[in-house]
Amino acid sequence: MDLWPLYLFHTGALTLNFAVNILTSCRITPLKTRRIHIRSIDTHREENFASFEEMRAQRRFRLPLAARLLQFFAPKQGLIIETDSESPAGAGISGSSALMIATTAALARFTDRNLTFEQMRVIAQNIEAQVINVPTGCQDYYPALYGGVSALHLNADGIHREAVPVAPEEIESRFVLAYTGAPRQSGINNWEVFKAHINGDKRVFRNFEKIADIARSMYQALLRSQWEEVGRLLREEWKLRRTNAPGITTPLIDKLIAAAGKNGGLGAKVCGAGGGGCVIFLVEKGSASRVATTIGDAGGRVLPLQVARDGLRFAS
User: Fold this and answer.
1) Does residue 229 sit within a domain?
2) In angstroms, what CA-CA distances link 276 with 164, 253, 262?
3) pLDDT one-digit tens code per residue, 208-255
4) Which of 130, 138, 151, 300 is the most exposed place for a label (fewest CB within 10 A)?
5) Residue 133 maps to which CATH number?
6) Whole domain around residue 65: which residue ranges?
7) Torsional sign, CA 145, 151, 155, 157
8) Helices 202-223 and 186-198: angle between axes, nearest 10 degrees
9) What is the pTM of this model?
């Protein structure tokens, strides 16, 4: 729904998300030489360039997200840029988007660019699209910027973020997050759905219309703390989403959702584009531990779930 221009074809489109305390960081250290050193701590990869000019001439990188952002911001001195992420590979919980926001913000400060959050989001989204070669959705960048629970209203005059007044403790007591393994490139699923929608696939268009209705209803249910209704809507949304393109679900995802449903699960859906990655489960209050144990026994890896109270932060 958050892929431009798909949301423009569905009046009142919005998406809902909340930020989890699985963090990404970026540190920049200036050098007295012209050397550019990029290091990814969590993936144990790095790249070195004798100068920015040498890096700017490159077209292929081992660490393309940071490298492309460096090309955009064009620092005037050498530096070491180090990134780190707590997110598992291909989890679908916006790990790459959080990396883009952290690196964009760090480079903006380093190069004395005074950017608004929305300008950072646009830069991060556009450059990530250049890297993965398919359209990217807008919603993934907002948790890293703001934290908390967000409603993103996708309107013709732009994207408007609204903080949803749900207590973080309520979210933490009612949701379980599980990792099912790394998916294929997430952009593939998004691209298949995007093409089908643009090509006039009536089934996909109807699915999007229903998903937009569900999102609006869920927004109202959250405002009223109607958790049973949130669960029903989550089940309806997943039923529609899994039919948008082949590969969105997997046998393991179906197994975990079925097992959770027998032990206090009210609804579930994949995070991100699907094909693996993470699944979020809404559960009956008081049953989170039981559902987590069930998921672990069925082959999932339960991740700690804490709502991030804050978004983007600078250490100094």
Assistant:
1) yes
2) 28, 7, 22
3) 999 999 999 999 999 999 999 999 999 999 998 887 766 788 899 999
4) 130
5) 3.30.230.10
6) 24-142
7) negative
8) 110
9) 0.92
